[in-house]
Specification:
transmembrane, 40 strands, TonB-dependent receptor, 22-stranded antiparallel barrel, mainly beta, 53% strand, Maltoporin, Chain A, 759 residues, single chain
């Protein structure tokens, strides 16, 4: 992309001009004295304000990278209770659905790329499919664009870093107790105590249960505890030890509704659909209370030791994690066209039983020094990780086929079908399905096993030439090895492995026309090796890709960042061009090779600020123009394997299509206003454009705008009530589009009231 020739570049430069002029005026007035009491009132959490990772070797104002931060305050104001709730505040992020092979859990798409395996906690990769909570989080950091220089293997769109709460030298306890519609009940405790000289302990507790608003039967039930203790908080040598435990036991609502299949021939033509979801009634739940479940567990222990010696800091952080994700849930299947043909639905099951253990250790050295007239701020380190996954499933006897047809076709419903077929318009989740079925865990001796080991070394340096110019450089080397073993009863196991090493880098130049503004140009890369998911995600290793090189993504970005109105308002804007030039696709001989190409051009705008002591805002807009430039070849005769005669390999008809799970336009806004008598009112909106579920762009979910509202009242300084209304207009919309069978519907309107006490 030539930035100078795009309309978006012109718009960006037009936007920069008045900002620079205002910034210059602010700089001229910066000598005016201000009272310290006025400064103390400013509590801005900027969209690039406080990154936790030491790999950011400059303030985010001077970092040539797009980074969005969702603060703890924003999470609390919006009533978020999960990672997905928190990420609604970041435009440009959509969510993918799960199935059996692709697990159900957090699956964010950042700038059009699946980032399920790009989630970190305190800078260390958080492996394993989970539905993550926020009760132990200080903030969520979203690094956009290829990020392998920062964290190693990466899908190309960006990564998430979840920042945990840690002890501090302050006695403080916060308690929140909430109740609401749809049987909502939630309680959290965040308690910090100073135990001695430089010693403090912190305990976070959470219990949550609720039904799903606007949906029959489905519910969530979870609890968590996160204790930690710190030594030497007032000394150069520090040690922080913590553990995180969470369990869930849900009746999952992962499915929603099937698509209206766009049949092209045969007896279904008269009932041809347009590819959008079929919704006879939003409340309809096609699962079964006496069968469906999702139970997860996470146990993660961390030891963080550091020593600060002047301008340099040595740190070692080690983590031992053990997570599991077990589920069996009903997917509303449309593969036989039952809803259109008969007004029925086949209750297809998706099942998974995964355990994942991992050990990660990161040793780093950070600091600053000068060489002549150049100022350096650096971060360098080594990492080692060892991930071990075992994956089984849940099986049923006699099974889920319709016994009347011997297949998944459902001309009728009821007991004679084993309740595997249900009425599409009026399903009954209380059907006694299990009376004639046995559900059992698959033979653990036949579980798929995957081991992934990575050894890495990295270095970052921000070199400041003068007050106006600096460069940011980052380099990382990864030695990656993964092996998957699938036991076969009575035979030798099937083994796939991939051993690769790859180098990635991040480079950018920053120009500061004034001290509170920057303009940058950056270039970054990422590598996506086969088996990227460690055996528990959406990018697995198999016979077709085991011998291939990593996919390589590159990103060119032109952006600007500004602190305005004495740091009360922070603005960011960026243009970017991202290319994946060796995507894994099927070529004209039927093999999978690194031969495809995907391109995305985009623009994003972000803003956050405390415009006055009473008025705060947060929001942004993202435009993503995605294209499958070269999606390989396909057989001219429909076939799952090979290309049988008389078929021939032809260029993919999906060439030129939009990326799946990618909204062309997305935006969000959240604003609050505090009145002098203790009342705070807040409101926000989230917009997402139409998204396709598949590369063929035949199945899709429509655009939507969701509205939320909040009101809180301070009864006294340390006691407040907070009312949140989610999906204020009770909008019927979808948040996830699976590639083939179904789309996930969003909750309806809900209201919660929380009593918050600090002491």
């Amino acid at each position: 992309m030539n930035p100078a020739r795009t309309p978006l570049t012109s718009a960006l430069l037009i936007a920069i001009a008045p900002l620079a002029a205002h910034a210059a005026d602010s700089a001229d007035n910066s000598a005016d004295p201000r009272k310290a009491t006025d400064l103390d009132k400013v509590q801005v959490r900027g969209s690039w304000f406080a990154p936790s990772s030491p790999k950011f070797t400059a303030d985010l104002l001077d970092t040539p990278k797009s980074v969005s931060i969702v603060s703890e305050k924003l999470i609390q104001q919006t009533g978020a209770t999960s990672l997905q709730d928190a990420l609604r505040m970041v435009p440009g992020i959509t969510f993918g659905a799960g199935e059996g092979g692709n697990p159900t859990g957090d699956r964010p798409f950042i700038r059009g790329f699946d980032s399920q395996s790009n989630i970190f906690v305190d800078g260390l990769r958080d492996v394993g499919s989970q539905t993550r909570e926020i009760f132990d989080l200080e903030q969520v950091e979203v690094v956009k664009g290829p990020s392998s220089a920062y964290g190693g293997r990466d899908s190309g769109g960006g990564s998430l870093n979840l920042v945990s709460k840690t002890p501090k030298l302050k006695n403080e306890t916060s308690v929140s107790m909430g109740a609401g519609t749809d049987s909502y009940a939630r309680g959290t405790v965040d308690s910090n105590y100073v135990l001695g000289d430089g010693i403090a302990a912190r305990l976070n507790l959470m219990k949550h249960q609720s039904d799903i608003a606007g949906r029959d039967a489905a519910n969530v039930d979870r609890w968590g505890i996160a204790p930690s203790i710190a030594f030497g908080l007032n000394s150069p040598a520090q040690l922080i030890v913590g553990h995180y435990h969470m369990e869930t036991d849900d009746l999952p609502d992962a499915g929603g509704f099937p698509y209206s299949n766009p049949f092209s021939s045969g007896p279904n033509v008269a009932k041809n659909g347009d590819g959008s979801p079929l919704v006879p009634d939003r409340n309809n739940y096609y699962g079964l209370k006496d069968r469906d479940f999702q139970r997860t567990r996470a146990d993660i222990s961390t030891i963080d030791a550091s020593y600060d010696f002047g301008d340099h800091k040595l740190r070692n952080i080690a983590r031992l994690g053990n997570t599991s994700n077990d589920y069996l849930w009903t997917q509303p299947d449309d593969s036989k066209g039952n809803p259109n043909l008969y007004g029925t639905l086949w209750r297809r099951t998706n099942a998974r039983a995964v355990d994942l253990k991992n050990f990660t250790d990161q040793l780093s050295l950070t600091g600053s020094f000068t060489t002549g007239s150049l100022k350096h701020s650096y971060s360098t380190g080594v990492e080692y990780s060892d991930e071990k996954m075992t994956r089984g499933t849940y099986q049923m006897t006699p099974g889920t086929n319709n016994p009347l047809t011997g297949s998944t076709a459902c001309p009728t419903t009821g007991p004679a079908t084993g309740y595997n077929c249900t009425d599409f318009n009026n399903p009954n989740p209380n059907d006694p399905w299990s009376a004639n079925q046995i559900v059992y865990r698959s033979n653990k001796a036949l579980d798929v096993r995957q081991t992934t080991k990575t050894k890495s070394v990295y270095a970052f340096d921000t070199i400041e030439f003068n007050a106006q110019w600096s460069v940011n450089l980052g380099l990382r080397y990864d030695d990656y090895s993964t092996e998957q073993v699938t036991p076969v009863l009575g035979k030798a196991p099937t083994v796939f492995n991939n051993d690769n090493d790859f180098v990635n880098y991040q480079a950018g130049v920053v120009f500061k026309p004034v001290s509170n503004g920057s303009i940058y140009l950056s270039y970054g890369t990422s590598s996506t090796p086969p088996g990227m998911d460690g055996g528990d995600g959406s990018d697995g290793i198999n016979a077709a890709n085991a011998d291939l090189k990593p996919q390589e993504t590159k990103n060119l970005e032109l952006g600007t960042k500004w602190d305005l109105f004495d740091n009360r308002l922070n603005l960011t804007a960026a243009l970017f061009h991202t290319e994946l030039n060796n995507a894994r696709v099927v070529i004209d001989n039927g093999t999978t090779q690194n031969a495809g190409k995907k391109v995305i051009d985009g623009f994003e705008l972000g803003f956050t600020g405390q415009l006055t002591d009473a008025w705060s805002i947060y929001g942004g807009y993202t435009y993503l123009d995605s294209e499958l430039k070269d999606n390989g070849f396909t057989c001219s005769v429909s076939s799952r394997t090979g290309c049988p005669a008389p078929g021939v390999w032809i260029p993919s008809p999906n060439n030129g299509n939009q990326f799946p799970n990618t909204a062309k336009h997305s935006a969000n806004l959240w604003t609050t206003y505090s009145f002098p008598f203790g009342l705070t009112l807040g409101a926000g909106a989230t917009y997402s454009d139409k998204q396709y579920g598949d590369a063929a762009n035949l199945k899709w979910i429509p655009s939507y705008t969701r509205w939320d509202a909040m009101a809180s009242y301070a009864i006294q300084e340390n006691i407040s009530l907070q009312l949140n209304v989610q999906n204020l207009s009770d909008k019927v919309y979808f948040t996830k589009a699976y590639a083939s069978h179904y789309a996930s519907i969003a909750p309806g309107r809900s209201a919660t009231l929380a009593l918050n006490v600090t002491f």
